[in-house]
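Many introductory courses stop at the sequence. We go one step further.
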Amino acid sequence: MKQPSASAALHLDNQLCFALHSTSLLMTKACKPLLQSIGPT
């Protein structure tokens, strides 16, 4: 298995933290209207 170069590993698309952050934002955006309608807080 070939390891990515150091510069390729630094691109945002190749970083796990960016993928998790992006997913979190999308989940929040998708769930916000539902949560607002039931008023959990």
